[in-house]
Structures are given as structure tokens and as C-alpha cells.
Amino acid sequence: MQLLDGKLVSEKIKKDIANEAADFLMTTGRKPHLVAILVGHDGGSETYVASKMRNCQQVGFDSTNIRYEDDITEEQLINKIRELNQDETIDGLIVQLPLPKHIDPENVTEAIDYKKDVDGFHPVNLGRMQRNLPCFIPATPYGILLMMEHYKINTSGMHAVVVGRSNIVGSPMSILLARNTQPGNCTVTLTHSKTKDLQEEVLRADLVIAAIGKKNFITGDMVKEGAIVIDVGINREVSTKTKSGYKLYGDVDFQSVAPKSSYITPVPGGVGLMTIIGLLKNTLAAAKKEVYS
Ligand code: NDP
Asked: How far, in Å, is the centroid of ligand 1 from the Cα of 236?
């Protein structure tokens, strides 16, 4: 079993991004700039946005966090997005999910200029991704691909089973793995809560992507000997034993799955760190107009 080390890989890629950001500053006189809108006070979202801002600073990007209380209306939020769309000093614009129930995330996602949509959630980017055209790939699947590239994992011909079909992880991951690319060229099964026999499906996988949101859900008896296991899950539980006051658990029961796997990502220290890399790379590409002119 080999650990897919998100800390090691993300630190290495961050150095490359920082060098490119420095070159960008030299040639343009400004830094790549990411704006993140955060609505309300969800504990997880606060942590994620703070981490995104901190990572931007570490690689030499400008970053701005715009905060609203959760009584902001959808119209007010969308008006602000439209204003930011027009601002030429902003390269990337993201709205942290989840949003309060009275705001439709689809409307918000579609309001963002797809050329600044560095989360890759806009239908234009998703459609272009499916067609294998230049686009912003959603940060988590992008980070997973970068991780597999780093470890030179050749996925061609593998049977990949993705557990979870969310718009931000499972669905785009299934599309990316099925594309005629490397990593890619997998035969993909996309599973969800209505899948009849999940264990049978996952047992057939050479590559398992777990994005469910349930602590230790994938257990050793569900995984084939030698499978590659990517654990996307971040399940926070209150803990008196950690400084932060909570402990993170993956969707994969590491203890029983790791001995059977060929490669596995830990939680924390795996996919979460690579997701930030996906976002930073998209923001840099937006600043350099590498995807859209
Ligand atoms: P969602 O809640 O949007 O989706 C969960 C998916 O899991 C759904 O498709 C659901 O099926 C499926 N599911 C739920 N229960 C079962 C079950 N018993 N059997 C099979 N499938 C099931 O989650 P996200 O994709 O947003 O996130 C998943 C996890 O990944 C969470 O822990 C989240 O915190 C984490 N995450 C981590 C990131 C990172 O950077 N590491 C980034 C984003 C998310 P159905 O569609 O039928 O309801």
C-alpha cells in the first residue's frame, strides 16, 4: 500500500504556482486575484474560505473575502456578482456552498461570468469539460487528477467506480475519468443512494472515488484487493482531543481499506489539500487568460 500524500504533492505544485505568479507580477505589474463570497457562518465553510485565502497569499495571489449575513436576498447576491463580473482587477470569482435555503445555488452559479468561474461549476465550463475543450475543471476532481498525474498512475482501461453524484465532485469526476485522456480512459460506474447493490459495484472497481459525506462508509469488505482508493469525504466531528475542537473523518474506513489497496489517500492530508491546488491553478490560468481570452 502506498499513501497518496496530498501534503507532499500540494507543496510541490504550490512552489510552481508561486513561481508562475511571480512571473505574472513581473510582466503585468499585478497579482492574480481571487474573490470568494461567503454567506452566513457555516463552520466548515468558514474554515474552507479561510484556507483558500491563506493559500492565495502563500503563492503570491491577491485574495478578497466578501462576507454577507445569511439574510441577504438572492437578488442582492446576484447583483453583487454582476458587479464583480465587470471588475477587471478580479480573475477568479467563487461563491462558497452551501448557501442558505432561500437562495438557489443554480441561479448564483449561472450568474458568475464563466470566464471567472474558477470553481468550474458554470454549465458552460461543465459542458466544455464533457467535450474535452479548454475549461475550468471543478477544483476537487482537478486536484485528484493532478494527484494521479504526480504518482504516474496510468488509469487507462481501469474500471472506476465513483460513489456519489454531486455536481461538484462525483458527476464531474465520472466525466473526467471517462474522457479519452490520461488520467482517464476508464470504464466508469457512477453510483448513488439508489444504487441497488453498492458493495457489488465497488468490489468490481480498480479505482474507487468515495464522495458520499458519510464517515467511514466504504469498508474493507467492499474493496477489491489492489484497488486504488481516493477518499474525498470530509466529515467533521466535535472533539475535545484536538486544538481546533473537531476531528476530520473520510468516507473511507482507512483501517480496514488501506491493507487491501495499492494506493490510498488519507483524511486529512489527501484530497482536501489537492482541491486548493485545483482552485489556485484555475485562478492562475484565468489571470493568464490561458482558458478564455
Ligand atoms: P453531496 O451530499 O452533494 O452528495 C453525496 C452523494 O452521495 C449523493 O450523490 C448521494 O446520493 C450519495 N450517497 C449518499 N448516501 C449514499 C449511500 N448510502 N450509498 C450510495 N451513495 C450515497 O456531497 P458532496 O459531493 O458535496 O461531498 C461528499 C463528501 O466530500 C462530503 O464529505 C464533503 O464534505 C466532501 N467534500 C470534500 C472536498 C474536498 O476538498 N476534499 C470537496 C467537496 C466535498 P443521491 O444523489 O442519491 O442523494
From this structure: 14
Residue 193, judged by CB atoms within 10 A of its CB (0-12, 13-18, 19+), counts as: exposed
CATH architecture of 139-273: 3-Layer(aba) Sandwich (3.40)
Over residues 199-213, mean pLDDT: 98
Mapped onto helix, strand or coil, the DSSP state of residue 273 is helix
Determine the average pLDDT of the residues in 92-118: 98
119 has catalytic annotation: yes
Residue 243 has pLDDT above 90, yes or no: no
Q: Is 281 a catalytic residue?
A: no
Per-residue confidence at 244, pLDDT binned at 50, 70, 90? confident
Ligand 1 neighbours (beta carbon < 6 A): 140, 163-166, 168-170, 191-195, 198, 211-214, 232-235, 271-272, 275
Q: Is 52 a catalytic residue?
A: yes
| Fold held by 28-113 | Rossmann fold (3.40.50)
Give the H or E element holding residue 230. Answer: strand 228-231
